[in-house]
Amino acid sequence: MGAHSLPSASAADAVAKLAAAEALKSTAASAASASSAPGSSTETALGTAQGASAAGGAGPVTAVPSSDTPSVAVDPEAEAEAYERANVHNVYEAIAPHFSATRYKPWPAVAQFLHAQQPGYVGLDVGCGNGKYLGVNKNVFMVGSDRSANLVAHANERVKELQKPQQQQPEAEVVRARIGGSKKEKKQKQEVPTGGERESEAPNAVIGKETGSEVAVANDVLVADGLSLPFREGRADFAICIAVIHHMSTRTRRQEAIRQLLKCVRPGGQVMVYVWALEQGESRRGWDEGGEQDLLVPWVLKSQQPKPKKEKQPKASKQKQKWPQQQQNHDSTEPQEAITAKNVGEKEATPTSSSILSPSSVPKDASMTIGGGTGAGVTEPASAAAAAVAGPDAKTDTGDAAASADAVFQRYYHLYRNGELEEDVLAARGAVVMSGYERDNWWVVATHATNDDTLQD
Amino acid sequence: MKVMTLNFLTCAVKNCKSSNDSFPLHPKEAELAKDDIEINPQLLINVLPRIDWAALRTTSTELGFPTLPEQPPSPEDLQSDEALLKELHELLMETQMMEGKLVCGHCGHEYAVKNGVANFLLPSHLV
């Protein structure tokens, strides 16, 4: 060790001194308090969406009133931002628990990219959602970021789970609860994830450690906007951005997002971007070459409860949908989408539902709490618009539940046509290393263009 | 928020990126905790050259730890010295900033850290 004496036992002492006492009591206590200070995972899974403003880091997101910016939005950039806030950010905040419960299986191409990274590499996952890509490669350190504080709260749960010292007990309980398939769990399968972009027909529903994993993994997560990232430029070895950029509503912003990713990685570092494809001939969504590329895609939070709680009264349908051209294809696309979604939703949701995050004590009316409790100012604009646009579709796939109880959220998507992603990489002063198509998605691995002289700045 | 992560973060404000004052961010009113994480020697040894050591020294000092040596340990040091490896692990991976603020030394903007998660969303006038 010689001259290199790091803060040793004294460091631990200092930590202990400064730390909240309860956080140090035990591993379990530490993990619990670190991931969701106020309480159990149950509370987190349901409470984040419900009480966003009360849930720590969630405040800033929901605190931005969606009605403010549109009224003052005079420049296109601000307008695009406001649009995305209403039709992407707020939606994810609202559907975070359900969304998270359906997202656990990595896309193969992404997993392959991650596994190709060297031990000790430092990577970024921009738009990490619930953090399903954290821990795929256990020998890299990854920092995930997402615009949605509620999703980041889920990702943080995952981080804590992944880094726990080996304890079979908790995991075994989860598995048992899952296999048991209690009634309670069945009642959880209310979500109908209509967007298939982060698909997951996963046989393995364990969100925490992957099956067979025995290495503890260190990762981290934070809340950030993809266009204003807090990462020091040129420091990361690699970055991924999966099913994120298609949520940006202008081409300029999509290209800028790729530019930001490239700036984060060192020279030679690689960035993988994955977006929903326009060409989905194999899927039942009905989208294909030549179709409309800018769409609002519904996410239906279904309730199968006989007596759902009332949804909060919409404050107003103040957020009139702009850009009407983006909805022109709804009639033709949504029915198929809804059907697809239902099938996918049932398949996906059944094994996992919220059981992973809250194995036993989910309130019966969880879905409605989530659907309606996110804060009217936040979700109603999207929801109201959704009702107007997708109401009939929602009914078609409800059948076994009260249609009126379903909460429909619209998410904006830009469907990439063949070649467009590569064009955007070039426009972002990047170079395409490789690219491909995987189950309704285009992907690209990009790096800095060799003549990019802005790397130094 | 791990100390490790802090070593890769700067201010989210565009104008601050080019300023040396924006890195590292300065912890303020930090409440720390220590996670119990299994050590991954291979990862640590390979991560070491990716660490900005000077920034780590600053962060470490600001968090109240004893001053780090001026020079980082070498991979060989780490490989041969288990105690050193463990110390590095404790500092980088296990030490968590649970609550507090991260302050940009350039623009002065403060980012909140709550429940161990830092929030870098900017108010509209800073975007």
UniProtKB/TrEMBL annotation, chain A:
Molecular function (Gene Ontology), one example: methyltransferase activity
InterPro entries linked to this entry: AlkB_tRNA_MeTrf/Diox, SAM-dependent_MTases_sf
Composition-biased stretches (Low complexity): 29-53, 350-361
Keywords: Methyltransferase, Transferase
Coiled coil spans: none
Keyword Lipid metabolism on entry: no
A Pfam cross-reference name: Methyltransf_23
Protein's UniProt keywords contain S-adenosyl-L-methionine: no
Basic residues bias: start-end ranges: 307-321
Region spans: Disordered: 29-75, 162-207, 300-375
GO BP terms: methylation
Origin: domain of life: Eukaryota
Protein name from the UniProt record: tRNA methyltransferase
